[in-house]
Amino acid sequence: MQNIRLDLVSPGHLQGTLTSTTPSISWQVIGEEKNWFQDEYQIRVRFQDHDCWDEISPLQSEESQFVKWPFRPLRSRESFEISVRVKGTNTGFSEWSTPIEGQVGFLVNLENWPAKFIAAASQERVDEPTASETLFRKVFHASKEVKRARMWSTALGIINLEINGQTVGKDYLSPGWTTYEMRLLHQFYDVTHLVHKGGNAIGARVGPGWFSGKFGFDGGVTNIYGDKRAASLFLEVDFVDNSKIQVCTDETWESAFGPIVAVGLYDGETYDANKELYGWSEPEGLTFPGVWSGVDIINFDTAKIEPQAFPHVTKQRLVRPSLLPLTPSGCKILDFGENIVGFLSFKNVVAPKHYTVSFRFAEVMENGELGIRPLREAKATDTYSFKGAAAGELYEPHFTFHGFRYCQINDPQNVISLENLEAVVLSTNMAAIGNFRCDNGLLNQLHANIVRSTVGNFITLPTDCPQRDERMGWTGDIAIFGKTASFLFDCSPMLSNWLKDFWCEQKLNANSKFPYAPPVTVPNMIKYMGHFWNDQISAIWQDCAIYLPKSLFDSTGAAFILEQQYESMEKWIECIPLVPGELRWDKEKVPIQLGDWLDPLAPPDDPLKSVTDAYLVADLFLFLILYMMIDISSIVSPHTTEKYKEWARICKKSFLKNYSNYSGHLTSDTQTAYALALSFGLYESAEQAKYAGDRLSQIVRANDFRISTGFAGTPFVTSALANTGHLDDAYNMLLQKECPSWLYPITMGATTIWERWNSMLPDGTINPGEMTSFNHYALGSVANTLHEVIGGLTMVEPGYKTFQVRSQPGGGLSFCLVYHECPYGKIEVIWKIADSKFQLQVSVPLNTSAKVVMPDGLRHLVQSGTHEFQCPWSY
Ligand code: BGC
């Protein structure tokens, strides 16, 4: 038995704490048994400070996912251990699984958050793009031997914690970015190893982050949620004699300004080591006369505090640079060899006091120099002034991150050598659960780039890009990419948290022009920027309300995500303005649609002018979400299912009437239009679908297999070809290297997915459009084709309880491997072509079934175990 999880929370350090007192329980049964299904299970729990286990009687059931909590409700902050054993249809009970520890977070509906929010005394409002940090400290005495010490913390800003000079957590950028008007997450740390009998000190440093720092494009906004950085935390120490103390932030704490003299998420961090306060988080820290002063108490409604129920942002890996030849203007550039997200750190560097170095980051080079234009207003520069320590100095930034492959280092005295430098890759610490390999190196690189762009854009929330003055939770991007992301990573905990913000933002829009409409970015930055998109709605972007929860449900089987979001979904559908008597978007009321955003045929400076009619796209997605609602409502609210069936039927009729002729020819005769109509099942007859498939193939061929789809059509075009008998065209498109195509960026050295098909032009110059990122996951949704068409793996029952393997070899490939760690265990599909045969090996997890369809049309139904199949095949 492994991978026991509670709701979506996996056990372990910095994985998050539970928001529920009755969490569901899921487990995987791992083993080699053939055709194994679970027949019975038994669960036991050991509550905090109890010696014995409470167990339920064995229950006859195949269920192993999201099993209802069978014990008494847990208490706020309670920890417990849980263990499971199972019996198969023809086997006896297994051993009890190794217990995992669960931890309920601080639940404000069950107890009062005891800590105050503290800011530096009389902190002034800063309206600059960067602001300084604030340090807070408190010395306390532990009079007895410590049994257990735990800390709960949050901040208005970004917080880093220390106890007795030691870092508390290995997390970064906590408490992350949520809809602060309604939700602020708290983190939890077990700090037993850091607190001891005698004098102790807690230190907290808080930077502006998303709360009060500058954020947003077109000049951005500062102090969005408030103008004072503040900390709120408490430490609870349990002594061996069962007594306890709590140390909470309150008016007795001290505050000071520390060495981070200026920092912003976009602009970077300026650190003056001469301003370090030696021993500031230790009980006997040196006193610096006149430096420490008191704190002000800030009003913040603690009812908004919630546990963080998903993994924290942590260091993922380290990347070492090489040095490029000096640029024409004489600059020194480090090349990390891949476009990553995080920061640069150095250690063991000896330099004179006040000597200053700086690092400026960018994703690409242009004309031999650092290509900073795509960053727009983000300065992306970290600066460090040495204190002159003879033993050397080390530094890593605290409150910023950058998207970069290159770094211009300004170090006139050459004190920093390459071996003292490394880049730290940051991301929400999600497990990688899916991958793809084949014998075409370019396709493998494409897949690796998609993975890298996911890692770089999943930093507490799903963002469009990680480098320029944007980095926002654009809803359309993740609507399109959510399915791919949840195949590659265990991201449903983070994304279901973000969906809570999504619904909060809808509630904050209750009285807007379109009541309860979701915004285009979550958290809703657009409203603070006064941007005209604030009161606009568009298909795909707002359709995320339904699209993303459905993708998460399909990949995990977690029906509670659908329940959590159901009101959000219904409210979105209710506010779409429709043409009277029909089910299609009303152009009069909604004059702009983002449509097939960034279709390569649209003018670079006007992506709204895509070749496919944006209302045709919008109406297709309207059908898609209504169709999804049939499924969703049948689980959450069965009495509404008939309504959605009827609406989907009318919507399809309206679509065909308005956009299709009898044969299936569409008013927009484009790749995107046919790809979507086919993939969403809009045609009424097989003849129409055949016509559309053939027409799509003609358009693709006439375009010499180059792409002409944007955000909307990209995830669907290759699979639409493959599923209508045009597999060769699908492969020709996938393997095309001319611009625009998926492999073109790879021929240009891309290591991430670009925002535009031609973010870099063939002559090596950067696309002149002002919106040109080199790390945007959206167009990476093509990975679905790699997984589902080439690999052939698709979900049939949510959570892959049943799945299909229908690999479709082609494109001269002779080998492919795709795997996905589904909730039940690892599915692996490997095929190769040898000796004029197609040979397939499928590993099916226990408790699941697979439908296998071979290229020769033969079908097999198999259960757990590894199975081999073959059929004649030649290219
Ligand atoms: C973002 C996109 C987003 C779009 C919508 C851009 O600036 O980077 O990814 O979806 O705006 O307008």
Strand runs, count? 39
SSE class = alpha+beta
* Largest sheet features: 11 strands, mixed
Outline: globular
Please mark out the parts with pLDDT under 50 across 5 or more consecutive residues, or reply none. Answer: none
> What is the count of helical runs?
15
What is the percentage of strand-forming residues?
25-35%
CA-atom Rg in angstroms: 28 Å
Q: State the helical fraction.
A: 10-25%
Bound molecules: beta-D-glucopyranose
The average pLDDT score comes to 96
Distance between the termini: 43 Å
Topology:
Blueprint (H helix, E strand, L loop, with lengths): L1 E5 L18 E4 L9 E10 L6 E2 L3 E2 L18 E10 L11 E4 L13 E4 L13 E9 L3 E11 L1 E6 L2 E2 L3 E2 L11 E7 L7 E10 L1 H4 L17 E10 L4 E5 L5 E3 L3 E5 L3 E5 L22 E4 L6 E3 L5 E7 L2 E2 L8 E18 L6 E7 L1 E3 L2 E3 L9 E5 L7 E3 L6 E9 L10 E8 L5 E5 L2 H16 L18 H14 L3 H17 L17 H4 L14 H13 L2 H17 L38 H23 L4 H19 L11 H9 L6 H17 L14 H7 L3 H9 L8 H4 L35 H8 L2 E3 L6 E4 L9 E8 L2 E10 L2 E17 L5 E14 L3
Parallel strand pairs: 14-22, 20-29, 35-38
Antiparallel strand pairs: 1-2, 3-4, 3-5, 3-6, 6-7, 8-21, 9-15, 9-18, 10-14, 10-16, 11-12, 11-15, 13-23, 16-17, 19-20, 23-32, 24-25, 25-30, 25-31, 25-32, 26-29, 26-31, 27-28, 33-36, 34-35, 36-37, 37-38, 38-39
Helix pairs in contact: 3-6, 4-6, 4-7, 6-7, 7-8, 8-9, 8-10, 10-11, 10-12, 12-13
The structure holds beta-D-glucopyranose.
The site of beta-D-glucopyranose has 9 residues, from helix 3.
Give a structural overview.
It is a single chain. With 875 residues, the protein is an alpha+beta fold. The protein is built from 15 helices and 39 strands. Strands 13, 19, 20, 23, 24, 25, 26, 29, 30, 31 and 32 form an eleven-stranded mixed sheet that branches. Strands 33, 34, 35, 36, 37, 38 and 39 form a seven-stranded mixed sheet that branches. The longest helix is centred in the C-terminal third of the chain and has 23 residues, at 614-636. It is globular and about 85 Å long. The two termini are 43 Å apart. Bound molecules: beta-D-glucopyranose (BGC). The site of beta-D-glucopyranose has 9 residues, from α3.
